[in-house]
Write a structure and sequence with these properties.
heterodimer, A: about 350 residues, mainly alpha, B: about 500 residues, alpha/beta, Rossmann fold, six-stranded mixed β-sheet, 22 strands, about 25% strand
Chain lengths: ~350, ~500
């Protein structure tokens, strides 16, 4: 048995395997739900009802998808240029820290001025956090997988220090949390009365902007060229190191906007559990989206549906929420396998 | 086929391939090829690049499995797709690109893969003794304790051959063994091969060099476009006949008429960069300057230096009499240097990019964008123009370039370069791996650029190509460049001496 490359895969060939991958991950989840003592159909029914079945559930899902769109975009942008940014988690927290530092009264400006300032400040902080490993990579060849991954832990401990020290809320009854943002620093809701904030709209705008950069600008062309064949890019005169640094700025900035959006849109203050691993889930989102910026939105919604739905399902019947993790993990692994089958066909000898 | 019958009349072929057919997609690499090899015989597989020689040998050696046909060694059929079976049956292959571990010693490389599973020691004394014995018998001088990374290319090839002999190979397949050797090293290889024949080994010798085939083979098989088009006893044929069979009567590129040398467009004085040492070179307008030499002697560094990918450590480079203050790929392009890289897959193109994206790779910033925004309409029009003008056979400008054949890929690169009207052209191995039609096309385009006044640097391992096209020739060896010789001023033997490093003043 061997794999034979397909020169020009048909539309069916490109769509069928990923679809089957998603269905197969559902089948695996069904089996596990059965073992855990739930009726698989009831489990899936509860998951989808819990994520999409009511206005409240739907808005909850969109809110959950918002940070995942930001981190998914951050990872997609970086991975396209073969910059392996595993540090979206740290970059997201960097954005959150800046939002809290500037938004709890340090800048007493009106909202239309303050909010863009916070967003830009947050993006700059995330950009700098990724710029350092990117420079270590371009200057000294240090592997960014290691540096960005390990920096997550360093930065989380730093945030922990800030919340126990300089940023600790004096009125917080001793809890390690920051003071609340002033009202001008809060992202308003898109529609009054509905629990969905402008961070979601910002995420969608970012996805479109990244898509436009990718397709329509010289920077996008350079990033794709460097990602696909750095040797040919360098030979053609594309400044490879500079392009990698620009990619790092963009990627880190996007992840940090996720931190700004969570704090200013949803939480109102910073705690150490701001992100339940949004930075890492962003990698799953980006991979499921095949690194396509618009696909990231769809993938983030898919992941949010699974998580929100599984929470709700678990409250209703006794099947644990870990089912959501298994569904994501199997969807990702099967997707990687499926991509192989969009490019190769199996031949028996 | 009558050729097969003559082979079958003789007793016990050591190797037989019968009706081998292999297709890759729509391309037929081998079509119904049959031949047999006898004890003590050397057969040559002759054919242009892409004629199907390497595919056929990869099938024989079990790297590929044939769509149709049978491979037999010593009367027993070999299972398809099992290199181990071929090895065990006594078939050894010396690949064009060596398969040695640089960081291990010669004897360790030879022992690799021959040890019993679970053995505690490699038994160095036994391996070394056997290696020394084989070295002496076959005139393959090499120190068993030397590290392979420190050996010359010729020595590494000897290790490859020793490796096969160590495994008791009775049939040796040599894929383009002389491509990396100097003429003198080639003579030594032939002495070894003759020794091997006298000891009863059989050899398949793959080459596209006619005089070598005439010198070593008993029988010649000529492949063209995947078919076996002729089989000749060496006594019944001559080089001219084989050449015409090989190329199938297609017209060779015209000889280049003499032109007066124009002004110097690029000069290197005492240039040292990478492996290059103290190189002097002048490229004149309206001239092709050929660089002959065995691969890996500094050709890459020379082309990278002029292409702007490598920077000078010392010495001077002048472009049209001026010394540029700064030199990188973009500056080189801006100074009118057109670059045809050695490896079109690695350096020349981006495989998953379409033709348009590849066509504008060097000029997207200056010609196909404004204030950071790409002008894809213009880029696509430009690409359509290149496809037309340079006869690139493809479904259209949106096709990923990896789907193109090497020849069409090279035509696009050629178009990308020539369309900018370069003053200076660096062509590093511009026709390697191309079929004869594409070769002629590339050569005639280069000749036309020469006539319109470009200064061309042609780097090639193929001496015939260099001698046919160049106005003047340098030989490169171990990073040093010989003085320039006018075309025809040096014999092949003399060039061979330069290639081997003789004639260079020894640096103190």
């Amino acid at each position: 048995m061997r794999l034979e490359p397909i020169s020009q895969p048909s539309l069916q060939r490109r769509l069928l395997p990923p679809t089957l991958a998603i269905l197969a991950s559902f089948a695996i989840a069904a089996l596990l739900a059965q073992i855990a003592g739930g009726n698989p159909f009831a489990v899936f029914d509860l998951i989808f009802k819990g994520a999409l079945g009511s206005k409240f559930a739907l808005l909850e899902t969109l809110n959950r998808a918002t940070p995942l769109i930001f981190t998914g975009l951050a990872v997609a942008v970086a991975f396209r240029a073969k910059l392996w940014n595993i540090g979206a988690e740290a970059q997201l927290y960097a954005g959150a820290v800046i939002t809290v530092v500037l938004g709890t009264g340090a800048l007493a400006w009106p909202a239309p001025v303050l909010l863009p300032t916070l967003a830009i400040g947050a993006a700059l902080a995330g950009a700098i956090v990724l710029l350092i490993p990117a420079m270590l990579k371009t200057r000294f060849g240090v592997d960014e997988v290691v540096t960005t991954l390990l920096f997550n832990f360093i930065f989380l401990l730093f945030v922990s220090y800030l919340l126990e020290g300089p940023l600790k809320d004096p009125m917080g009854m001793g809890w390690p949390k920051s003071a609340r943002l002033i009202p001008e620093a809060r992202l308003p809701r898109i529609v009054e009365g509905l629990r969905l904030h402008w961070g979601f709209a910002l995420a969608l705008i970012c996805a479109v902007v990244v898509w436009v950069i990718d397709r329509k600008t010289t920077l996008g062309f350079e990033m794709r060229a460097v990602g696909q064949n750095p040797e040919a890019a360098a030979f053609a005169g594309i400044p490879v190191a500079k392009v990698i640094l620009k990619t790092a700025l963009l990627s880190g900035g996007l992840a940090a906007m996720g931190g700004f959006s969570e704090v200013a849109g949803l939480k109102g203050s910073l705690t150490l559990d701001l992100s339940p691993g949004f930075g890492y889930t962003g990698i799953v989102v980006a991979m499921l989206a095949l690194l396509n910026p618009l696909g990231v939105v769809a993938a983030a919604l898919f992941v949010a549906i699974i998580f929100v739905g599984a929470d709700s399902m678990s409250r209703a019947i006794g099947v644990p929420t870990y089912l959501a993790d298994i569904m994501l993990a199997s969807a990702l692994l099967l997707m990687v396998l499926a991509i192989l089958f969009t490019k190769f066909r199996v031949r028996r000898d | 086929m009558s050729a097969l019958e003559t082979g079958a009349e003789r007793a016990d072929p050591v190797l037989r391939m019968q009706g081998i057919t292999k297709r890759f997609g729509s391309v037929t690499a081998n079509e119904d090829i049959s031949f047999s090899l006898h004890k003590g015989e050397v057969i040559a597989l002759l054919g242009e690049n892409g004629a199907g020689k390497t595919t056929l040998m990869n099938i024989l050696f079990g790297q590929y499995s044939a769509d149709k046909g049978v491979v037999e060694a010593f009367g027993t059929p070999l299972p398809a797709g099992a290199p181990r079976a071929a090895l065990d049956a006594g078939v050894g292959m010396v690949h064009q690109h060596f398969t040695l571990a640089d960081n291990l010693t010669v004897w360790e490389n030879i022992a690799l893969g021959t040890q019993e599973l679970g053995a505690f020691s490699l038994r160095p004394a036994r391996v070394k003794a056997k290696t020394r014995d084989l070295s002496a018998r076959f005139h393959l001088t090499v120190d068993p304790d030397a590290r392979v990374g420190a050996l010359t290319v010729g020595e590494r090839q000897r290790v490859e051959i020793l490796k096969a002999l160590y495994r008791e190979a009775k049939v040796l397949i040599l894929d383009e063994p002389t491509a990396v050797l100097t003429p003198q090293e080639t003579d030594a290889l032939f002495a070894t091969l003759r020794e091997a024949i006298s000891m009863g080994l059989s050899i398949v010798f793959i080459s596209h060099k006619l005089h070598e085939v005439m010198a070593i083979a008993h029988r010649v098989l000529v492949l063209r476009h995947g078919r076996l088009v002729a089989e000749r006893e060496i006594g019944d044929t001559n080089a001219e006949e084989l050449a015409s069979i090989m190329v199938g009567g297609e017209v060779r590129a015209p000889e280049v008429p003499a032109l007066p040398a124009g002004p110097a467009l690029l000069t290197l004085t005492g240039a040292t960069a990478g492996v290059l040492q103290d190189v002097d070179l002048t490229l004149n307008a309206g001239q092709i300057t050929g660089i002959a030499g065995v691969s890996g002697n500094g050709q890459g560094a020379l082309s990278d230096l002029i292409s702007g990918v490598l920077t000078l450590q010392s010495g001077e480079m002048q472009i049209a009499g001026q010394t540029p203050t700064h030199w990188d790929a973009r500056t080189a392009i801006a100074h009118g240097v057109g670059r045809i890289p050695e490896d079109r897959h690695k350096a020349g193109t981006i495989a998953d990019f379409d033709l348009t994206e590849n066509a504008i790779l060097e000029t997207y910033q200056t010609d196909f964008s404004r204030a950071g925004w790409m002008d894809w309409t213009k880029a696509r029009r430009h690409t359509e123009h290149l496809i037309q003008t340079y006869d690139v056979r493809c479904p259209g400008p949106d096709t990923p370039i990896r789907l193109l054949s090497g020849g069409n890929m090279q035509k696009l690169i050629l178009g990308r370069v020539l369309e900018e009207n370069p003053q200076i052209i660096v062509a590093n191995q511009p026709v390697r791996g191309l079929d004869i039609g594409a070769v002629n096309y590339v050569h005639s385009r280069l000749a036309a650029a020469r006539e319109s006044g470009s200064a061309i640097l042609l780097i090639s391992e193929d001496l015939d190509e260099i001698m046919k096209l160049s106005d003047k020739i340098h030989v490169i060896s171990e990073g040093r460049l010989s003085p320039a010789f006018l075309r025809g001023a040096l014999s092949v033997a003399e060039i061979g001496k330069w290639m081997a490093g003789q004639g260079f003043a020894h640096a103190s």
